[in-house]
Design brief:
The chain has 262 residues and is α/β, with parallel strands linked by helices. The chain is built from twelve helices and nine strands.
């Protein structure tokens, strides 16, 4: 059986996960979702990994759900479909739960569930040729994989409604303008730009990097008062860490810090 994804370590502290079903533009099926979930859970436990890149092999990042898989669940009852979809797609929320920042490296088609997967990542960089779309209504279904939360959170409710209800495709320039992606670059420079950002993050104190991701994600769903309390709790741990003391010493001694994640 062909590998549904590949993983390599282009840098000591960076893992590059690549969806590997290029013949179907990396469409999501049961095997790919399960393998992706398992690999992310493993990476979450690997202390040396500080940043994760997620990309797609071939001509696209991910063109959506696999038609064969969709035909399979169409044979089920509504209650069975609900259970299968919830269990499968909730697994992909592991992308938000892993401690490391996750950078989505987007090119070609980023459609449907592929768009949903990209929005679960923390940061998105896209090539100039990338094509996005929340095309679910065209298939007679509603947005899934958390898109009803992540899309309006990123672009605002009005724009999210327009994109989803029109089910239209749009390019990387519009995605950049509405805040869906952080950066648009020529396709031939996409991986290099993504690696450069990942290396920059990997040089930061690992504990602060992980806790910043956690605090921001939780802060987006809480009140200002709750954020103040959470920030004070986490910074209490940060100030007591070896990494903080190393950062302060390196600054005073005008040298490059060496962080150990402690």
């Amino acid at each position: 059986m062909a590998q549904t994804l590949t993983v390599d370590h282009p840098h000591e502290h960076i893992a590059h996960v690549r969806l590997n079903r290029p013949d179907v533009m990396n469409a999501l099926d049961n095997d790919l979702i399960n393998d992706l979930c398992t690999r992310f859970e493993e990476l979450d436990r690997e202390e040396h990994v500080r940043v994760i890149l997620l990309s797609g092999a071939g001509k696209s990042f991910c063109a959506g759900g696999d038609i064969g898989f969709l035909n399979y669940i169409n044979q089920m009852s509504p209650s069975e479909i609900q259970k299968v979809i919830y269990e499968l797609f909730f697994k992909l929320a592991v992308v938000t739960r892993v401690r490391q920042p996750v950078l989505a490296v987007l090119h070609g088609y980023v459609l449907g569930a592929g768009l949903g997967l990209s929005l679960l990542c923390d940061i998105r960089l896209a090539s100039e040729n990338a094509k996005f779309g929340a095309e679910f209504p065209g298939m007679g279904i509603i947005p899934e994989l958390g898109l009803t939360y992540t899309l309006p959170a990123l672009v605002g409710l009005g724009k999210a409604l327009e994109l989803a209800l029109s089910a239209r495709r749009f390019g990387a320039e519009e995605a950049l303008n509405i805040g869906l992606i952080s950066r648009m670059v020529p396709e031939e420079k996409l991986l290099d730009e993504s690696m450069a950002m990942a290396r920059q993050m990997a040089q930061l104190p690992p504990l602060a990097l992980r806790w910043t991701k956690s605090a921001l994600r939780r802060g987006a769903e809480s009140t200002l008062a709750e954020s103040f309390e959470r920030e004070s709790q986490i910074n209490g741990m940060c100030f007591a860490s070896e990494d903080h003391r190393e950062a302060a010493s390196a600054f005073l001694e005008k040298r490059k810090p060496i962080f150990k994640g402690r």
